[in-house]
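TASK: fixed-backbone design
INPUT:
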């Protein structure tokens, strides 16, 4: 951020879409707020003021019975006190997002203080990327800073369209956004090799593009989680009741062939922890992933798979991890994900660069308190996925 914010009002798009307790509306995880602090602190320290905007939840999807917005549930006022506490400064709140009241409060905002405006998604124009709405938002700041990586893949008014109304030199990415882009590029551009990608999670279809792309440039691609069983079935294995996408069997085989042709090692879990029920109380056994009997399902990778995967991970110089190896939310099926997290941390200690990107693998690393033992933990699930797939993110493109 080259801008000196002295005497400037910075309109800052952050991602304060934090989880809240459904009854008390207390913040249950403030990671996203903390991630935006360095940028906000820089603005205030320079002698500027910050007009902060964000979305929170899906207020227009979950309206009340009469069609009105459930303001009590979705108001951004829920974060105000906490932000004030973290920044140790006065944080004002405007119950309007745009319009006369918001403009007046932004104008009167003293330097060194913060104004949070109401949830941008209270307006239909937000998700449509509406120009008129974005223009109204733009009136609230002299400069525009985008630090909301988590929504950078959305061409919304407050993330993308608003940038149009600021000239070059009047707009910039915040520190979080810069870090996310820099770290993703470390994996994409000239990574130290071997480069190993660990892809897990529920569905092949969600990560199809990423898998294709990875086979183009990674040295090893490890596939775990529910998506592995589509590969197992495609190879003629018996997978019982495991998660499968029958319309992706051909694709799975295509990926296996492509990997072979390119000399990329595609690793699938040799064995699995299988269960007779989708429950933590189910009976469990460890079996070959291609020999799961009727009525049983693979819910985690087995010991052999953990050993295979860990060996490759520990010999890697660059590691990308997206998606859990099993149903880690249940303790009996968390071992695979935990072991992989430990292997990634061990490789990092040996000097590898490791990027953990994507909601559930981030949750696993956080659960194990390994955040400081990997090189970078991304805050953006969908946005990171699209960035790694090689797509141009609209909010990033809008800045140039
Ligand atoms: P994703 O959002 O695609 O990264 O998927 C994460 C979800 O996949 C988590 O909620 C996991 O519980 C789930 N998952 C991982 N492995 C399995 C599996 N073997 N069977 C069913 N669900 C799984």
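OUTPUT:
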């Amino acid at each position: 951020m080259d801008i000196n914010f002295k005497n400037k009002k910075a309109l800052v798009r952050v991602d304060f879409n934090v989880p809240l307790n459904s009854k008390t509306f207390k913040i249950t995880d403030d990671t996203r707020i903390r991630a935006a602090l360095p940028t906000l602190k820089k603005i205030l320290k320079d002698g500027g003021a910050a007009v902060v905007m964000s979305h929170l939840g899906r207020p227009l999807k979950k309206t009340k019975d009469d069609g009105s917005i459930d303001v009590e549930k979705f108001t951004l006022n829920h974060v105000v006190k906490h932000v004030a506490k973290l920044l140790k400064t006065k944080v004002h709140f405007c119950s309007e997002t745009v319009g006369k009241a918001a403009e007046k409060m932004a104008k009167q905002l003293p330097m060194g203080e913060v104004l949070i405006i109401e949830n941008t998604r209270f307006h239909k124009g937000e998700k449509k990327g509406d120009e008129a709405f974005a223009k109204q938002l733009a009136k609230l700041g002299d400069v525009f800073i985008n630090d909301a990586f988590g929504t950078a893949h959305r061409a919304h008014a407050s993330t993308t369209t608003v940038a149009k109304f600021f000239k070059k030199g009047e707009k910039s990415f915040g520190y979080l956004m810069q870090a996310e882009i820099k770290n993703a590029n470390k994996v994409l551009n000239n990574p130290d090799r071997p480069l190993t990608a660990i892809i897990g999670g529920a569905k092949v279809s969600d990560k199809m593009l990423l898998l294709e792309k990875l086979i183009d440039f990674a040295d090893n691609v490890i596939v775990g989680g529910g998506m592995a069983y589509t590969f197992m079935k495609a190879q003629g294995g018996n997978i019982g009741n495991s998660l499968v996408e029958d319309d992706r069997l051909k694709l799975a085989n295509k990926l296996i062939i492509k990997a072979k042709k390119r000399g990329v090692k595609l690793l699938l879990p040799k064995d699995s922890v299988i269960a007779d029920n989708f429950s933590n109380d189910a009976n469990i056994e460890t079996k070959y992933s291609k020999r799961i009997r009727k009525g049983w399902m693979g819910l985690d990778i087995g010991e052999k798979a953990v050993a295979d995967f860990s060996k490759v991970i520990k010999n890697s110089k660059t590691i990308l991890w997206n998606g859990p190896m099993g149903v880690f939310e249940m303790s009996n099926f968390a071992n695979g994900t935990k072991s992989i997290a430990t292997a990634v941390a061990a490789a990092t200690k040996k000097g590898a660069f490791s990027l953990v990107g994507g909601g559930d693998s981030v949750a696993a690393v956080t659960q194990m308190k390994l955040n400081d033992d990997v090189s970078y933990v991304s805050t953006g699930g969908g946005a990171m996925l699209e960035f790694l797939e090689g797509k141009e993110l609209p909010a990033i493109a809008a800045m140039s």
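COMMENT: The first strand starts at residue 9 and ends at 13.
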